[in-house]
């Protein structure tokens, strides 16, 4: 049955279809997963084992799931997990990170698509990472007797203001949730003000701290270090998760300082793949010798190239382990910043811009501990890197404080697992341990390749 909400979604989809077509043709976005998104054609699960359906919007949320799924597998090896995502980059990483699990595009919030997805997956619990509330998704989950949880929940100032304008709708959705595990007390109070039931809201901490690697000698980082030909005496300045004009600023910093510090190397990791060609053209025009990460396996490292463009998705966490000096991007524009926990965990000297609303609590902790530096413009970035090079003790102290802070924040994943376990154990939930899919359907098959009959 088509509802008024479905009609509203259809109108919105029709209105944005020219833009979606443009993005698909020019940038390669939104080309996959339409059977799953519009019709709920996700992998069919045949096992009767309890199943947790994790929904992670994109790359950051998918990365977050690694430690959570690992801990659940150790505690309940007989359970099954499946992972959905929304973006192509998120799906690419999910397939790579969880090859043993079923991964698929989450259906859009059309009632028919959501119902079919639930019939095919038969989960005992739906676990939404950070916050991804859709009316039909939550409502149909509850109608099916499926528990619904939010983990690593957060509500930025901007989101909170927006949700307050539609508080009656949001309160109804939040009231349907069984668990709302949030990162800090501020977020807990915001959820409560929006209508969440007090008994469902728990402060568990930020799971991103648990997922951060602290050992620079980990296998993934060591492999990349060898692949790029990094020497022990190299000093790596890495600008990661960058957007325009942050790559140009980092390149200008490198050009100003490389003459005085020949050991300096620059690694650029743009946030979005569609920026790879733009940054490559900028590097071509710079006149500097540089390499693409995508060519390293074939060509090998070029000793003359002191600049590397990482044109790959899902590797940034390991690349941070090669850096002594870090700039975390998305923080000099309007994106609200990116994850600065990863370079901090490695003990890098961390910097970022002033626009970090997405990580406000993490930034507050870092600045309180004098474990990071805010740079407001290009000359401040250059000044920060220059100081790290000229005064090694400054960079080392900054990195030691950052690593110590990360270690002090560990444990959020364990606390989250303790909240999720009872959801499946509750007898009133529809039963829905590891994976068995329908004959001929690989465990990691995506909805795009699953073209069997409807549920």
Helix coverage percent: 40-55%
Note the gap between the termini: 16 Å
Unreliable segments (pLDDT under 50, ≥5 consecutive)? Answer: 426-455
Count of the separate structural domains: 2
Architecture of the largest domain, CATH level 2?
3-Layer(aba) Sandwich
Q: What is the count of helical runs?
A: 20
Give, in spatial order, the strands making up the sheet with the most strands. Answer: 3-2-1-4-5-6-7
Mean pLDDT, as a whole number? 89
Report what the structure shows.
By secondary structure, the protein is α/β, with parallel strands linked by helices. The protein folds into 2 domains: 31-205 and 411-425, 3-Layer(aba) Sandwich (Rossmann fold); 219-408, Rossmann fold, CATH 3.40.50.2000. 46% of the residues lie in helices and 14% in strands. The chain has 20 helices and 14 strands. The protein has helices spanning 4-27, 34-39, 59-75, 88-97, 111-121, 135-143, 157-165, 167-175, 185-193, 207-210, 219-228, 246-257, 276-286, 296-299, 316-319, 341-346, 360-368, 378-390, 392-408, 412-425; strands at 51-55, 80-85, 102-105, 125-129, 147-153, 179-182, 201-203, 235-242, 264-270, 290-292, 307-309, 325-328, 349-352, 373-374. Strands 3-2-1-4-5-6-7 form a 7-stranded parallel sheet, sandwiched between helices. Helix 3 (59-75) runs parallel beside helix 4 (88-97), helix 3 packs across helix 20 and helix 12 crosses helix 18. The chain is globular, with a radius of gyration of 23 Å. The chain starts with a helix and ends in a 30-residue tail after the last helix. Mean pLDDT is 89; it is low at 426-455.
């Amino acid at each position: 049955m088509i509802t008024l909400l479905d009609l509203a979604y259809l109108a919105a989809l029709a209105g944005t279809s020219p833009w979606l077509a443009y993005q698909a043709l020019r940038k390669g976005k939104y080309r996959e997963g339409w059977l799953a998104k519009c019709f709920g054609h996700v992998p069919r699960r045949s096992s009767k084992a309890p199943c947790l359906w994790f929904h992670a919007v994109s790359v950051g949320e998918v990365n977050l799931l690694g430690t959570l799924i690992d801990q659940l597998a150790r505690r309940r090896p007989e359970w099954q997990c499946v992972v959905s995502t929304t973006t192509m980059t998120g799906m690419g990483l999910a397939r790579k990170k969880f090859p043993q699990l079923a991964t698929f595009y989450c259906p859009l919030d059309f009632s028919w698509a959501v119902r079919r997805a639930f019939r095919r997956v038969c989960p005992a619990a739906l676990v939404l990472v950070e916050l991804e509330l859709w009316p039909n998704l939550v409502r149909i989950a509850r109608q099916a007797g499926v528990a619904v949880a939010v983990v690593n929940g957060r509500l930025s100032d901007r989101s909170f203001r927006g949700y307050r304008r539609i508080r009656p709708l949001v309160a109804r959705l939040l009231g349907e949730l069984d668990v709302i595990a949030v990162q800090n007390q501020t977020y807990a109070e915001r959820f409560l003000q929006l209508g969440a039931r007090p008994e469902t809201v728990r402060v568990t901490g930020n799971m991103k701290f648990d997922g951060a690697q602290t050992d620079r000698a980990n296998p993934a980082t060591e492999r990349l270090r060898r692949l790029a030909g990094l020497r022990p005496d190299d000093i790596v300045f890495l600008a990661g998760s960058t957007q325009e004009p942050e790559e140009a600023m980092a390149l200008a910093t490198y050009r100003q300082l490389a003459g005085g510090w020949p050991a300096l190397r620059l690694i650029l990791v743009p946030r979005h793949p569609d920026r790879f060609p733009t940054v490559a053209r900028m590097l071509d025009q710079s006149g500097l010798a540089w390499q693409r990460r995508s060519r390293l396996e074939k060509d090998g490292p070029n000793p003359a190239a002191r600049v590397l463009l990482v044109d790959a998705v899902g590797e940034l966490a390991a690349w941070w382990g090669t850096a002594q000096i870090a700039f975390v991007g998305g923080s000099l524009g309007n994106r609200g910043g990116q994850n600065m926990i990863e370079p901090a965990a490695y003990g890098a000297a961390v910097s970022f811009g002033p626009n970090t609303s997405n990580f406000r609590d993490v930034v507050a902790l870092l600045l309180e501990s004098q474990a990071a530096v805010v740079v407001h413009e290009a000359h401040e970035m250059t000044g920060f890197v220059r100081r790290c090079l000229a005064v090694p003790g400054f960079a080392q102290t900054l990195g030691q404080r950052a690593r110590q802070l990360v270690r002090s924040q560990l444990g959020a994943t364990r606390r989250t697992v303790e909240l999720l376990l009872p959801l499946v154990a509750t007898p009133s939930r529809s039963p829905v341990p590891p994976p068995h899919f329908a004959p001929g359907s690989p465990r990691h098959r995506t909805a795009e390749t699953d073209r069997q009959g409807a549920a």
